[in-house]
């Protein structure tokens, strides 16, 4: 539990910063019998902030703390002879022993065979493996998973390694499973251990795709071998012991030289490494997240093999050195939270291996150069919440798949040169000042999603009907969008979601019935809608409005459906005609 996470926890629960939140907790706990569990504590300040003093609680309260460093429970005293530590009377120490042999065998077999008991001919071997693992649950889980459906010779080799481990017990056992991974899975494992633990999975996949690591397949391997898990919010998770094991490999604490020094995650070490060409030559990932002291990136040498540069939340960064153009292998540049950055160097346009640029500001002026949007390998360009100072100039990029300009001000219209985005799949113009889409949008034949929610777009071009692969058209809260929707929308044969809620449209064309794959139609708060006819039979959900009394019809509440689902229309203001609906 890091202190920054603790601070965020108190803000989320109590709406207060750490100090004030601590005072609130002390009052709320007063004279209450409580059970509190603090897991994986690594700093005694965490205990002080969350549970304070024993006087907060009444007799019978219990506080359980799990930690890998027993010193966090000690109280420090200072005397004439120096400082010493002791454990308060209220603290009872309990050392976790290994699992009982019978339970350990069941856990191992559940991962090695998918059931709690082994086949008879494997019983003796399994008992030897479990005995060698000394009841360590994490090692049992990972070794067991790595042996699933493996031939006898792999089992034998694993046993030999377990019988002759190096000094560090758990890490030596984890090394056995790590060495069984292929190179791509090892790279992904080390990335998560050093940089991506707790990060969103889809963001990481973009990077790994660019490195040709086959991420979906390799993540399955890492999950299957119990090295990682995917949490419910689609974030990557790795046990602290496994994380430390991976970082030890990169720090050079193992015999694996190829990984040594390949990733940096501690800000204080970065500048020393970059100043040394010899030390920096193996650097593949440089993570400077939340480095408040950096105002300009270091000078990058031409021989560096850096692939990923992460400058997230470097809020005082004002300049990226032009030498970044020398990084011929860089594929990912993360600039989220770089709120002082106003431009990217023109030399970045020479980084032809670059596949992803992610930038999120706080509304500052920003110059987006044409040379950068035209990078030949660029797949993802995400520029969010900045003011584009010059007219947007877009280079000829035939590789770009995702263009996200959400919350960017200063742009009234997109240039016609967008026609060069032949590979574009995702276009996000939400919360922008753009008033119309270019006619050339019809040339983006691979486009699947257009998000223009909360934008100033006032009309849809007829050329939008050429987008045969478009699946989602999102125009929620485009309050300038009014009148009729062009009939060409009926040719969008792949469209599944059409969201026109909170707009001023007055009618939908009869061609709407031709949208054979449309499943969701959102017309909430479309107060001026006068006619609704020809709904496609594929429709599953129709969102209407419950809060307004119709003018032309005294009261309308129709619930209708198909064999696939239900949809509902309720109480439309000025609703004059309802078309092909089968009333249930």
Characterise the protein shown here.
The chain is built from 15 helices and 27 strands. With 584 residues, the chain is an alpha/beta fold. Among the domains are: 3-86, no CATH class; 101-179; 183-257, Arc Repressor Mutant, subunit A (Orthogonal Bundle), CATH 1.10.10; 264-411, Alpha-Beta Horseshoe (Leucine-rich repeat, LRR (right-handed beta-alpha superhelix)). Helix 1 (3-14) crosses helix 2. It is globular and about 75 Å long. Mean pLDDT is 79; it is low at 1-6, 253-257 and 546-584. Residues 184-250 form the Disease resistance protein Roq1-like winged-helix domain. Residues 25-79 form the NB-ARC domain.
Q: Strand content of the residues, in percent?
A: 15-25%
C-alpha termini separation:
55 Å
List segments where confidence is low: pLDDT < 50 over at least 5 consecutive residues. 1-6, 253-257, 546-584
- At CATH level 3, the topology of the domain at 264-411 is Leucine-rich repeat, LRR (right-handed beta-alpha superhelix)
Helical amount among residues, as a percent range?
25-40%
Shape, per Cα inertia axes: globular
How many helix segments? 15
- CATH class of the domain at 264-411 equals Alpha Beta
Largest sheet: 13 strands, parallel
Look at the structure and give the mean pLDDT: 79
| Cα Rg | 30 Å
How many β-strand stretches? 27
How are the strands of the largest sheet arranged? 7-8-9-10-11-13-15-16-17-18-20-22-24
Structure class: alpha/beta
CATH superfamily of the domain at 264-411: Ribonuclease Inhibitor
Please name the CATH architecture of the domain at 264-411.
Alpha-Beta Horseshoe
